[in-house]
Amino acid sequence: MMDAKFRMKHSNSLAQCMLTCEECANRAIEENMDCYGHCKACAELCNVTMRLMSVNSMHAGETAAICAKACDHCAEMCASHKTDHCQTCAQSCREASAACRDIQAAYEKMGKK
Questions:
Q1: CATH code for the domain of 76
Q2: Confidence band for 23, pLDDT divided at 50, 70 and 90
Q3: What pLDDT was estimated at residue 113?
Q4: Which of 9, 23, 51, 64 is disulfide-compatible with 100, CB 3.0–4.6 A?
Q5: How far is the C-alpha of 7 from the C-alpha of 86, rounded, in Å?
Q6: What is the percent of the chain where pLDDT is above 70?
Q7: 96 contacts 16 by C-beta, under 8 angstroms
Q8: For the segment 27-74, what is each residue's pLDDT rounded down to a tens digit?
């Protein structure tokens, strides 16, 4: 089982990404930008990954792998935009992607792919 410090650190990264993506998605609608869907998907997957990890679900590692991909796609999309909220979102997504890869590796090490 992973320790509380690991869970807290990675949950914070996922929570921050979720909030940043939600804000970016809301602004994307207002500004008619094409990153809305990427931001919403990323936010939802961060939320699910965080929740599964909090209950030490055997599916958290697999979900983290999918979440990392969504974070990477969202970061790429938002990085291509010049707005501050998209640049902030891209950075938050990169950090969450790294956290997801750590989570995935931890679950694989525990035998919970």
A1: 1.20.1270.360
A2: very high
A3: 56
A4: 64
A5: 27
A6: 97
A7: yes
A8: 999 999 999 999 999 999 999 999 999 998 999 999 999 999 999 999
Q: What is the pLDDT of residue 1?
A: 59
The number of domains in the chain is: 1
Contact in structure between 36 and 26 (CB atoms under 8 Å):
no
As a whole number of angstroms, the distance between CA 14 and CA 27 comes to 20
Range(s) of the domain holding residue 31:
4-109
Q: What does the DSSP assignment read for the chain?
A: ---HHHHHHHHHHHHHHHHHHHHHHHHHHHTT-TTHHHHHHHHHHHHHHHHHHHTT-TTHHHHHHHHHHHHHHHHHHHHTS-SHHHHHHHHHHHHHHHHHHHHHHHHHHTT--
What's the token pair of residue 80? Answer: 């291509």
